[in-house]
Amino acid sequence: MRKLFLFVAAAAATLACRQMANDLVHEEVPAEILAFDVQEQVSSTISRAQRTVTITVPENTDMSALTLTKFQFTSEATCAPTLQTGAKINLSSPITLTLTTYDTYTWIIEAKVHKEDPKDGPQLYNMGFDHWSVVKDKLGVKYDALYDQDASEAEKAVWASAGASTKMLGYDTVMPETEFLAVSGAGKKALKLQTRGISALFGAIKKLAAGSVFVGYTGDIDLTKQSAHIFWGVPFTNRPKALEGFYCYKPVPIDWVKEPYMEKKGQLDEASVTVILSDWVAPYEICPPDRLLDVEKDPGIIGYGKAIFTKDMKAYEPFHIDITYRSERTPRYISIVCSSSELGDYFTGGDGSILYLDEFKLTY
């Protein structure tokens, strides 16, 4: 009887070992869609919890022939059916994609019509600050640019900064923020601007550089003045009522000062966001501190609004900038200018002041 018991026990153990060998234990690797955009979209929303992608498109869009411009998913996964960027996809009814790692995950891709709110109107590219690329300037300096790698030439020409010139000297002033966001979600980013006191080339260059972005483009650098020629404005013929968004400011006391603001030393730094509508014949050239814009007297300015941020914050808060119009003329250009130090054009500010910005929108 004892031998029979031992035999049964050994057989059970052998069977259990075989079952364990056949029942492979593996680490779960969820297969997720990270990006899914079509050329015709107004927006694309990814829900990881529900495993859905919802594309909104303008009214009268042919949903049966949408052009896929971006598709990214978990690198360890395979996708069926296979989709390639540039292909036409039919979203007149929802489609199913199957992503497989060790396990299988079913995702639903759907499209819906964007019903425009009366307050909605034309927007600029990348006002949510989600799209970024690392690019090289003419000297081979790598810096963060505010456009996606697949952006068109027109989209690349919307946002600009002096980030390349400060990066060349070893200082980051303009960069994407991936953790501290006003609105979270897959692929979401924010804009981080940081004022830096720059000392380079054994002291030959010593200046303050505010973290700054603007709608327009950059020109040449004036080495004698240690300043860049920048040009405010991209073509825009609409008349929005306001600019809205989210901000969080973390100022430090002003420790770099220049005339005529010497008395500012020791005061808490301030940041700003400005919006300008104009009928200039061309983008307006700025070269601080000698060539600046006189917003009170410039005859080309049609609409203007500005917010100055002063308090030290721990979380994002919404802002609203009303645009005051001075005439009924039709704009030709719009520019939005953001700076982590309001007096940065005068090389005055606090080394280390940080301004976070997210989810801009023009309201009508």
Describe the structure.
With 364 residues, the chain is mainly β. 9% of the residues lie in helices and 41% in strands. Strand 7 and strand 8 form a beta hairpin. The chain is globular.
How large a portion of the residues is in β-strands, by DSSP E? 35-45%
Helices and strands: which structural class?
mainly beta
Total E-strand runs: 26
Approximate helicity band: under 10%
Average pLDDT, all residues: 88
Spans of 5+ residues with little confidence (pLDDT < 50)?
1-22
Total helices: the number is: 3
Strand count, sense and barrel status of the largest sheet are: 9 strands, antiparallel
**Amino- and carboxy-terminal Cα gap:** 91 Å
What overall form do the CA principal axes indicate?
Answer: globular
User: From N to C, what is the helix and strand string?
Assistant: HEEEEEEEEEEHEHEEEEEEEEEEEEEEE
Gyration radius from CA atoms, angstroms: 27 Å
Question: Which terms summarize this structure?
Answer:
single chain; 364 residues; mainly beta; 9-stranded antiparallel β-sheet; 5-stranded mixed β-sheet; 3 helices; 26 strands; 41% strand; disordered N terminus
Could you give a quick summary of the protein structure above?
The protein has 364 residues and is mainly beta. The protein contains 3 helices and 26 strands. The relative contact order is 0.14.
